[in-house]
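**Reference record**
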Amino acid sequence: MNGPQGGLRADLAAIAAMIPEDTHVLDVGCGNGVLLEYLQTTKRVDGRGLELSQVDVNACVARGLSVVQGDADTDLADYPSGVFDVVILSDTIQSTRSPKNVLRELLRIGKRTIVSLPNFGHWRVRLTLLALGRMPKTPALDYDWHETPNIHLCTIADFVRLAREEGASIERAFALQSRGQMRSMSPNSWGPNLFAERALFLLRGAVAAPQGGIATPQPDSGQLLG
């Protein structure tokens, strides 16, 4: 995939391309609702959102979206298991207090889980730390250290290890760049951990989705989940 679609941020555009039509979707940390609105308009999803910021919740409601104020660290436990076809966590897991527990809950409540995250193993990050001895700023990590909401930064390799510890199957994995380029990657490959600015994962929990749920994606399909 080259370039964002519908004015979406690159990783959100990649996520949107993965979602089948007419599915039940939860967007955790949905921000101002731009992805949910896009999915409802173009994919006719039954979309729900969970967002910590009340300002962003208000923006979502103004868009006509079904979004509630809540904290991924504490409120995901209230959702029944397997209630959503797809659960999305975009650029948020590094901001949670307990990423392991959040991922565990996502895998429980969603038949499939999509996670995107910035890669702290990118070569610019490593070079800045090595050469300057300072916390890096990149297009994917555009905060000064004293202002960042990112309290649990990780590399692609770190996340892959966590997903497997939680019993998740990594069905697809993609390396993303800030300009919108996206390439399929092997979770075990060292190259993306060094060169990718962001990563995107399609996960399935240890308990298989029931029959009639989302099918396993095909490598060459345009709609990656359908």
Summary: The two ends are 17 Å apart (CA to CA). Strands lie at 24-28, 46-51, 67-69, 84-90, 110-118, 169-176, 182-184, 198-204. The longest strand covers residues 110-118. The first helix runs from residue 10 to 18.
